[in-house]
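Q: What residues go here?
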């Protein structure tokens, strides 16, 4: 493994701040899919999400020297992505913030009956997620799809940790009710 492959995200940011293009390529390779998926869930438009990837990583190139390391690089990237996505949504007045594009990956090892049941459950979960408020969907997305801690979510969204906990509590409660009505008793670990 080369030094570039073993480099931490923080080391890459420091190298990017010094104008290291290879470090930028490595960081992009590690995080562009996560940035794309998060932005797609927010803006619901693949082309806009693709454009946002470019904007986010251009900001990283320009702002790397200002990264203070108070959070994980992935948290910083998602915060930039969120800001860019919300700005894009404000520009597109007809856009709605929803999580309809969240899709579970089918387990190909399952038999067809199990695969259909999982697909139905996944569809029901996505449908129930869209019924949550935008604030609740955003918290659920960051915690469960991006595996961010309450502290990281608070930083990304720009709200107090207790507000994140409260929104998560009510989002899970509402989601459980919606899933029960849809015939799914439990939709998360």
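A:
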């Amino acid at each position: 493994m080369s030094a570039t492959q073993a480099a931490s995200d923080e080391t890459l940011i420091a190298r990017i701040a010094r104008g290291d293009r290879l470090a930028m390529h490595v960081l992009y390779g590690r995080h562009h899919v996560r940035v794309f998926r998060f932005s797609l869930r927010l803006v619901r438009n693949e082309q806009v999400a693709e454009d946002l990837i470019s904007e986010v990583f251009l900001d990283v190139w320009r702002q790397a020297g200002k990264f203070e390391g108070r959070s994980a690089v992935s948290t910083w990237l998602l915060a930039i992505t969120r800001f860019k996505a919300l700005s894009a949504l404000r520009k597109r007045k007809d856009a709605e913030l929803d999580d309809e594009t969240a899709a579970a990956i089918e387990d190909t090892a399952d038999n067809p009956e199990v695969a259909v049941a999982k697909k139905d459950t996944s569809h029901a979960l996505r449908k129930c997620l869209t019924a949550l408020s935008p604030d609740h969907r955003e918290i659920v997305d960051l915690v469960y799809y991006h595996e961010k801690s309450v502290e990281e979510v608070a930083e990304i969204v720009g709200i107090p940790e207790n507000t994140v906990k409260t929104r998560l509590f009510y989002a899970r409660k509402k989601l459980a009710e919606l899933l029960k009505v849809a015939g799914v008793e439990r939709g998360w670990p």
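A: Context that may help when evaluating the design: The CA atoms of residues 144 and 188 lie 8 Å apart. The chain has nine helices and no strands.
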